[in-house]
Amino acid sequence: MSKTSLRHFSLQRRMALIFLSLLTLIVLVTVLFVWRATYNHSTEQLQSHVRTSASVVAEKISNTASVLRSNLIILAKDFSIKQLIATAADDKKSLYSAMENFQARSLADIFWVLDADYVPLVSSQDNSVMDENALSELRQSGLHWYQHGGQFYLLEAVALKFVESSVQNNAWLIMGIRADRLFDQKLVSLTDMQISVYHPDTATILTSTFAPQLATELGSHTIVIAPTLHELTLADENYIYGSSQLGRWGESPVYTLLATQETKAYLSTQSLIEQLVIILSVAGVLALISAIVMSRTITRPLEDLIAIARKISLGKYVQQFPQSNTKEVVTLTAAINDMQNGIIEREKEINHLAFFDELTGLPNRIQFHQHITRSIEQNIAAKLIVLTMDVDRFKEINDTISHEKGDHLLQMIAQRLKTYTGTKAFFARLGGDEFGIIIEALNEEGRKADPEAIAQAVVALFEQPFAVDGLNLDIDVSIGLAVYPEHAINEQGLLQCADIAMYSCKDQHYRYALYQPELNKHSVMRLSLMSELKGALVAGQLQLYYQPKLAIADNKITTAECLIRWIHPQHGFIAPDDFIPLAEQTGAIRHVTHWALNTACMQLKNWQSQNITLSLAVNISAMDLVDMQLPAYIAKLLSKYDLAADLLTLEVTESAVMGNPENALKALHTLRSMGVILSIDDFGTGFSSMAQLKKMPVHELKIDKAFVLDLANNKDDQIMVKTLVSLAQNLSLQTVAEGVEDLATLEFLQSINCTKAQGYYLSKALPAAQFETWYHNFHRVEA
Predict the structure, then answer these.
(1) 3-class DSSP state for residue 670?
(2) Whether the Cβ atoms of residue 480 and residue 500 lie closer than 8 Å to each other
(3) The pTM is what?
(4) Cα separations (Å) of 297 from 76, 269, 290, 768?
(5) Could you tell me which of 502, 503, 475 has the C-alpha nearest to residue 406?
(6) DSSP track, 39-100
(7) Model pLDDT for residues 325-340, shown as the tens digit of each residue
């Protein structure tokens, strides 16, 4: 081979080397450019994914906390729980039971009820005391974490006021959900990341979705809290993680750590680089120009895809992607499109979790509140009707047929509600067995919808029973209605009014009730009276008034009935029907009865000293009747005031005796053996049988005024009263007719040999001093 050929070969080699060098440089530069751009894009996408996942986690935890807080706010307004807290000193067991039931309905794991001085009244944990610093933190807004018994909890606290208008908090309701229940595999699947909750100040992992071994190893690392991504190694595997604040533990912040495997995070980058190397290598073998053209063909759509990916990372979704004939670019485009669709689907799922009830598929409480607010702000309807509906006896049903079937029943109720065919309605499940309905007050024909007609239509939906696993269940509901703007002008006011109406119809056993302002006032006054009754006894606000009973045959006043009057310093005269049921409900009736008996005996002794000879009748309740300490207390009073037992008459209603016949009869026999006179009050209105009456060791029957008020004119009443008097005479019992309002009635009673008469014809109930004057005047006239 000649020198020329050698140079030519060498030149070709040199050209080849130059070409290869140039091609290699192009390949390297292209690969480096694409790798850096893709790596940066993947990193930005990962950062975006971490931020989105952190938002998902924060939103889920915040929604959970919000639901828990909303439930606590409703509970804090609940009249029953206020009553239980007000009487917790005497009955913690009932308060504990109520809070335990509410905890179960709210899916909570722990609770405290603290008094105004933050002293625990009851707690789900025995002898559990809240840390003072934690109490201070709970009064501030935000998410709060708390460690108790080796577990971490998400806590919410709400102040409770006995009187809503008061500026003073009377108690605190606190509930918490265990941290490890908040972060489950469903949330891991949703975010596609492992989630841990970390407290930097104590280097403590509150909870983690990692396997226990990895979670322990994570706690031993130095965790960097910063806006950027960081790396760490767990079990010889590299992980990328980011952090985001998620509330506070004590006085310092708590962060979520969202981690994913590094290989998984940059899998698309590695795949893309491998494909690019192959594409560019083939292009280099074919031709430099082909390589340049192919490089441009590849890099240009890649840059477009990178720009699209950046838009997606900012939440700007793209409808049209760049077209390309390159398989790899098409694959990458499809991958980015799939990624965008996945993000959209996740956002829809997150939105569904945030605004819809998972069990029934109905909108949840949050969306219900937002719908009311939006309807008011956008003036969608001139009027809105808001209904809150509660399933009666649902706890009993749930406990009987199991919680799983109870959930199925709730689903069936939701489906039944959807069959409502009236004015367009918005249905929601507010929580537990409570549902909400929003209806525009104008129907499709433009006529105003009638709230009560709507309530009747909803009630009619439950006329047919529900078939649950072979059981036919008749379901009753209680519905409260409130109308915007008549009853309230905002969402909270409407819900409060609807709730007040709903609970009022529960108390009255009605199917539905439209809110009335007096319902709210009655609730506030009722709560106030319950707490003031014992104090009223001490303060001397209660008085005994005396109404005379005429011995008809002798035309003499031989007995007077003691009637309690409460003269309140703010509310004035309070009728017994307004506070005696409250006293029976709270157990204060025993104190009231003892006070009445002591006052009556003292008055008897005083009148004896004035030569006023008569006996006094005192009413006792069903609760007093079965109190076996009552006979001993009466014996003590008779001894103290040196009174004969037959000067005291105890009046008890038929219903009180029939409520617990065995114990009632035992108490009546004891009292009769002491010489106390016993009278059956309101006779004829109860359900006692003749056989039961024969067993009662009583001295007299008191005929209810319902048969006496129109006795002079009503033949049926005359027959009834005559029959009752004849029955009493045959049983050797005396009779007292109450409600005598005229002379004709008195004369009829005299004609049928009724023993005594009582009523306004003789006198209304009078204070002691006025009664004495009336008594002397009556006997002076008769003399």
Answers:
(1) helix
(2) yes
(3) 0.45
(4) 67, 19, 10, 110
(5) 475
(6) HHHHHHHHHHHHHHHHHHHHHHHHHHHHHHHHHHHHHHH-HHHHHHHHTTTT-HHHHHHHHH
(7) 767 777 877 888 888 7
